[in-house]
Amino acid sequence: MIEVTGLAKRFRSLTAVHDLSFTVGDGEIFGLLGPNGAGKTTTVRMLAGLIAASDGAARINGHELGEDSQRIRAITGILTESPGLHDKLTARQNLAYYGRLYGLRGGALREAVNRYLRVVDMTDAADRRVGGFSKGMRQKIAIARALIHEPEVLYLDEPTSALDPSAAKSIRDFVATLRDAGRSIVVCTHNLDEAERLCDRIGIMRGTLLEVDTPARLRRRNGTARVKVDLVGARRPESFLDLMGSLPFVSAARANDGSLFVEVDDPRGDNPELVRALVEAGARIIGVNEEAATLEQVYLDLVGEVGERDARTIGEVA
Amino acid sequence: MRPGYIGAVVGKEVRDLLTNRLLIGAVAFPALIFASIPTGIVAFIQINDLDPEQMGQIGQYLAMFPDLPPKLAAQGFIVLNFMAYFLLIPAMVPMAIATQSVIGEKTARSLEPQLATPMEVSELLIGKAIASALPAVLATWGVFLLYGLVNGAIADPRLTNLIFNQVWQVTMLTLVPLICLLSVLLGIIVSSRVNDARTAQQLGSFIVIPIIAIAVAGFFSGQPSFSMQQVIIGDLVVAVLIGLALVVGNWIFDREQILTRLG
Questions:
Q1: Which residues does residue A129 pair with via DSSP β-bridges, in sequence order?
Q2: Which residues pair with A285 in a beta bridge?
Q3: Which secondary structure element, helix H or strand E, spans residue B242, and what is its range?
Q4: How many folded domains does chain B comprise?
Q5: Which burial class, exposed, middle or buried, applies to A65 when counting CB atoms under 10 A from its CB (0-12, 13-18, 19+)?
Q6: Block means of pLDDT (10 residues each) for chain A, length 318 residues?
Q7: Closest CA to A121 of A141, A105, A107, A135
């Protein structure tokens, strides 16, 4: 379990991360989303015991950051932004080297190397130098390296970048099995689709966490949801707009291309009333679908808001 | 300090080195050149009798070897005089290996995953230092051994005894490893500031200047080799420089500095 309280990191006059607080439970995948320079890598480096925090505290599976950094590094697996492999060594030698650095020896080391070469489907290329590998192959070896010592906590920076769709899916599936095995996993990504598919909760970050929630709740953060009602028959959708305006739970409505787009507060509670009112008014409904905001919209809204606020602050200072 | 971690780093570095033919050449070539030039001169003197007029010109040098016949004394002067250049091998080679190693890690961005393991930065650096210094120490010792045996075989066994004298035994066992260590540390420090191995090696190559100066001064002063006192002073000076380099290296190679500056 990862427990972070008020974590901050300053590099001289630059504050990279401030007031960062969140938890990642056992068996949970937590996504960190944010633009370049948002502090994701700095956060991961602090939590992995690589750099010291300027302020705040964190406990990783009961170990205090700072005091037990060596122990934290021993139970942590990290996939760095760049694979960072040793090109002159073979895939097997790369994994064996890191296995040794994590304390594996002899038969246990050989077994772990073979197991993770199989997991990332790289057994056939095991004895080739990684210098000749494609980006995707290098990424797979870097993932195997992060897992070689069966870490209790895992940080994955863009885990499926450079992978083809089937390799990306197999890595995602494998990460899901690690979650099922009770590991705490933090995924840093720009890939919103991947975050939505993989993560149990997502934190949108820009220096600090702007919002943390499940992907589904994040999509509803504005409090309203849009419902699309598809109609057929002689009456045009525009003719129902006045009716929509009279319903107390409808905050906005428009008609377009044979459909009504209605914004309601609570689709589960409001949709039956909406359908009843339309049918009583003579509408012939062939479909009702909730159109939630995409994670991308939410992300851009949040990051954009902060970006605008920053720009305003800079403008005011100037 | 845990030997297992240092051993893992040494093993990885040696494997890396063995795949780099150019670097192996850089280890072997200078050593062979420094040994073969005086050996060639010894062989030339052995085959061709020296002109009595030439013998007269180098009389003051020959007088340093009163127990040897003039021809062997001339060969003795040559072999001993060139031996100062043996110190160029530990000065140059470890630096070439160390700079290649650190710059290579920077380029490949492979320092971060290593620092993310339970290994301490000092263990990583010691492993790298051993792996960079060891080939140079072994090459110097190997060539020193060959040099003594081959020249003895070409001229006279007494030449072998002259080469394997007590001063040079102490030099090989103390000064050579110390120079190697200093060279590695300078290589690592310089590599942390630049991004290509060639620039690092050019900057680091200033270390050879004092050694060449000592060798040239020895030749012009008519002193064929070092005295024991000079070797001990040399050991102390290099040890102090190593201490300074360790202080600087320790600051530069703080885990956070490596990640935020060297990446």
A1: A90
A2: A231
A3: helix B228-252
A4: 1
A5: buried
A6: 94 90 95 90 93 93 90 94 91 96 94 94 94 90 94 92 82 88 91 86 92 83 77 88 91 88 84 93 90 76 64 41
A7: A141
Calpha distance B225→B218 (Å, rounded): 7
Residues in Cβ contact with A290 at an 8 Å cutoff, skipping those fewer than 6 apart = A225, A226, A227, A228, A267, A271
Q: In the block, which residue shows the tokens 């030698």? A: A93
φ, ψ for residue B230, nearest 5 deg? -65, -40
Which has the closest alpha carbon to B180: B84, B243, B98?
A: B98
Position B33, amino acid: I
- Strand blocks (E) in B139-210: none
Instruction: Look up the ipTM and state it.
Output: 0.80
Any B CB within 8 A of A37 CB:
no
Which residue segment(s) compose the domain that B197 sits in?
A: 3-262
Classify strands A14-24 and A2-11 as parallel, antiparallel or unpaired: antiparallel
**Number of residues assigned to chain A:** 318
Sheet of strand A76-79, all strands in order from the earlier edge strand to the far edge: A76-79, A153-157, A184-189, A28-33, A201-206, A208-213
- Give ∠ CA A37-A43-A46 in degrees, rounded to 5: 135
Mind telling me how many Å the CA of A47 is from chain B's nearest CA? 11
Domains present along chain A, CATH in parentheses: 2-219 (3.40.50.300), 225-291 (3.30.70.100)
Residues in B closer than 8 angstroms to A98, CB to CB, are 113-114, 117
Sign of CA dihedral B60, B63, B65, B70: positive
- Residue A101 has its nearest CB partner, among B16, B114, B260, at B114
The answer to whether the beta carbons of residues A232 and A206 sit under 8 Å apart is: no
Cα A110–chain centre separation? 33
CB contact under 8 A, B108 and A86: yes
What single letter denotes the amino acid at residue A47?
L
Q: What is the pLDDT of residues B206-225, one digit of tens each?
A: 766 776 677 667 666 666 67
List the structure tokens of B91: 């000065």
